[in-house]
Amino acid sequence: MTSVWPPRDVLGDVAGGHGPGGAQASPADWAAAPERSNRFALRVMAWIAVHLGRRAARLVLHPITLYFLCFAPAARRHSARYLQRVLGHAPTLADRYRHFHAFASTVLDRLYFVRGALHEFDLQVSGGDLMDATLAEGRGAFLLGAHIGSFEALHAVGESRPGMRVAMVMYPDNARLIHAVLQSVAPRFKLGIIPIGRPGSTLAIRDWLDEGGLAGLLGDRFLPSDPARARSVALPFLGVTARFADGPLRLAQLLRRRVVFMAGLYRGGRRYEVRFEPLADFRERVDDAALRERLVQQALQAYVARLESLVREVPYNWFNFHDFWQEE
Known about the structure:
Blueprint: H1 39-52, H2 54-71, H3 73-87, H4 93-114, E1 122-126, H5 128-137, E2 141-145, H6 152-159, E3 166-170, H7 176-185, E4 193-195, H8 201-210, E5 214-218, E6 233-237, E7 240-244, H9 247-255, E8 258-268, E9 271-281, H10 289-313
Parallel strand pairs: 1-9, 2-5, 2-8, 3-4, 3-5
Antiparallel strand pairs: 6-7, 8-9
């Protein structure tokens, strides 16, 4: 490790923006794939959401869902494969529709979350005491989540907790289109991003944490096409071996921080549930290299087990519409 702690030696992929409307990329190149979402359609959706209200906008979700269900064959195929495993039976057409519709619903609701229209939602929070205690320490923490539910719901919770500042650690080029639309309807909204893949990224993360900020990462994607980020661990997930990057946890250990599992679950209609749960605590210095390695692997196993439990609980909330198991 060099003196500037280059993030490519530590981090796997942590955040991507492609849902069923994005390019159908393999795990090796999904981060570089251009967005295929229709700018006009997104802006029309935003206009309806802002001027006609959420009830009218939700009606428009049905033709949008049908469109992607019919004309996004790769996303449909990957969705069906995932649903087969999480549901334990061949997914019905209703199951597939529900999966796409849940994703569309969370994209729509981003518009309301970033505008601060929290009255539109029934927002429940569990683990708030954990976050309050973490913030009171003033050393920051890592929030490790997945492509499940809505990250914007987490931002909504932050609005009600003074000092809860969250920045996503991600590739800044991902999801440029949807972020542009969000800013067009909420000019004051600014998605805090700490870009990775650049010299000094890890130092920027460390400085953000030292100021008491929270660094959000998504741990269910990585970049096998980049040898520097290809380190991953094979673990069982929904009955089939999948690969998960341990980079976020190694970074947390390097910087000696607490890791909290986060999820903003979409419960249907106007209901969301934001959860914070303890995942790992690397605040104590560990000199023994073998013990450090064991602690990272234990934390990664705990993360994967927690994610599997969560997708079984809310199966239509997981939005990895690509070849997650690398079977193609």
